[in-house]
Amino acid sequence: MRSSSLALAHNSVITISNHRARLVALRARVTGAYPGMQCAQRDSLQRVIGSVGPARKTRTHRHYRGVAVPGSPTARRRRLAVELKNLRASHQLTCQQVGQQLDWSGSKVNRLETGSGRVQPSDVDALCRFYETTDELREFLKRLAKESKVRGWWHAHGSAVPPWFSVYIGLEQDACSLRQYQNEFVPGLMQTAAYAAELHRASGQYTTEALDRAVNVRMARQQILTGAEPPELRTIVHESVLRHVVGDCALMREQLGHMLDVGALKNVTLQVLPFTAGTYPATGAFTVLGFSEQEDPDVVYRDGLTDGVYLESPDEVAQYTRAFNNLQAIASSPARSTAVIKKVLEEYSP
Asked: Considering the entire predicted model, what is its pTM?
């Protein structure tokens, strides 16, 4: 498909040189390759083609021809969706316009860009040829489509992991930072098996076998904190979480002791929001997941009884990031928080 055809598709005059310039800029952003440019020039180009967020913790990924490949199938599917959407946006086309050119429906293009359906490598190939990408980029995106079909380790546990939460586990596995606020229960990455079992048992939805599988999944998730490249975890828990008795006092002693152990890890920061913190915006529990690659924007996750909500728009993510920063500012310091947890732990002693 020639550039002139793309111009006709959205009824505007685009010169071939401008079209090529946009593609070059896009490829540079996707691959991170800016040959011949000084640092200042690279930074300037990044600001033109996409906002530059705060410094991100680097994480080692597999690379395909110089391009970082996200680790989990969920992250690959999300990266692919983001890149396909960016390709279309760079040509100033709507989903409907792209669909018309490829004899697809606009809704199919939208599904490919949101990751809400199965993505075939052949569809990715057709889109890349329409957008006139480089062969390298086309092969990279086709590989993402192929590898996004791989099932994560958690899928082996079947119904113990609801489909809506399976997405979160996949993102959590690839995140380089996790910022959590919990005002009701101990965060999953800090729970003991006994505490997790009590929570699952209270739902009344699990058989004994399914409950064991659900607890095993939660324990397996925690391994990311002590792996070779653990994410940076910053957790704020409301003081009520410490005093909310789940199970019995013996269970709570074990749980708070485990919280202290996790909080002592070098990649973990644990703070307690005291009852005396005063008034603050009501947000409910949430997690902001950050990723090492600029192409993978942050995600806000909020869960419920039967579903989870994923927020990705820059404005919404920014609001929750500010909310977390505000909560962090009024929460007790890590040292003071440790003292508070120890005090409550002693209160559970016989």
From this structure: 0.65
